[in-house]
Structure formats: structure tokens, C-alpha cells
Amino acid sequence: MGQHYCDVAPGHPVHGHYHDYEYGFPIDDESRLFERLVLEIAQAGLSWELILKKREGFRHRLAGFDVDRVATLSEAEQAAFLADPGVVRNRLKLKAFMHNARCIQDLRASHGGFAGWIAAHHPLPKEEWIKLFRKTFKFMGPEIVGEFLMSTGVLPGAHQAKCPVQRRILDANPLWHQETK
């Protein structure tokens, strides 16, 4: 890419809000974590701008990123998803969303949920996170795992030190910052 996201996103009509209010901020809400995981998987091979433009389509077709609903999408709901130009129509990615939703359901019993599972394994180096995500979920390449963890405040690097958003992220006490205190 050459440029950092902080150099191009502020003020951008598509990226601006995401950069300023979401990217790198800690998340502990299950459906918001699941949303970020879905969007990162959907982005594989595509641009982040396209995914942000299709975000509402995903929200609509995936029941507001409700883990329990996505885990049990009917054949008709899957067909509607794959026919909708408002989402990334990819059968393998849709199957991964459903599989990963079922995995998150299982994490409720073992760790109290997705956020609890993440917290229980923190801190890990990125390479170990990649192994853990690949063992637990589907469609988990190094870029997807790394971006998911940076975008949710688990790993550092979402913003440059000079970016004004970085101060607000530090005030929100992301997991990566807790280990440096």
C-alpha cells in the first residue's frame, strides 16, 4: 500500500468514519466482534472500501451480525445472500461465516464468549494468534487475523502515533496497551 491508513482515511467519504471511530478501538460486544470478523473475511482479495460500502448489505443479510441467527441460516436465507449484489457473494465465505458463528457459540460455554476467549489468550505474538485462529475458525489467513486483531484493539498498529485518533484509542485502554503499563 505504501501509505498508512491514517494518511489516507481521515476525511474520506467512505473510510473517514471507520478510521476515526472504529478502527483500533477495543470491542467486547459479541455481535460487533463477529461483524468485524465477517467483514475481514469478506475483504479477502478485495478492497476495504468495497467492504465498507457493502457493510449494510451484510448487516441486513446476516441478521445484524447475530451469531445465533447466522449459525443457523436456512437454505433460503443462504440463497438470498448469494443472490444479493449488496454483499460479497461468495459461497465459501458464507459457509465460513456460518461455521465461525457456531464456533463463537461454543466459546460461550468454554470462555463466556468471543471476547472472553480473546482475553484468555492475550497476550500472544501475532504468529501464535494466527495459529490459534486457524485452529478455531475457518478462512483465517495471516492478513485476516492480523487486521481483525489490530482493528479490535488486541494488537497495536492500527494508527500512527501522530494520528489524533491514537490518543482516544489509548484512553479506551485496548488490550495491547494494557500489557505495556
From TrEMBL:
* One BP term from GO: base-excision repair
Q: What GO MF terms are annotated?
A: DNA-3-methyladenine glycosylase activity; metal ion binding
Q: Which UniProt keywords apply?
A: Glycosidase, Hydrolase, Metal-binding, Zinc
Q: Which Pfam families match?
A: Adenine_glyco
Question: What positions does the entry give for Zn(2+) binding?
Answer: C6, H19
This enzyme's EC code(s):
3.2.2.20
Annotated signal peptide: none
EC top class, as a word: hydrolase
What is the top-level taxon of the source organism?
A: Bacteria
Please give the name of this protein. Answer: DNA-3-methyladenine glycosylase I
